[in-house]
Amino acid sequence: MAIWRELEDRDITTPAAIGEALGMPASEATSLLTRRQWREGDVALLKAMAARLGVQVPDHAQLVS
User: Do 22 and 28 touch, CB atoms closer than 8 A?
Assistant: First the structure.
């Protein structure tokens, strides 16, 4: 959600713009952001996306406590 909010705040809303902002093909970026069930490696990709945008990501311990 934080990644989506950051993209919207920057007025980055089209698949092409999202892909460009995240440094990956548009279809891959939007697919990753809209998945209901993550695959192996997705968390690392999402963290890389967040870092690229400057979004702070809580560590895993904060998410489960």
Answer: no
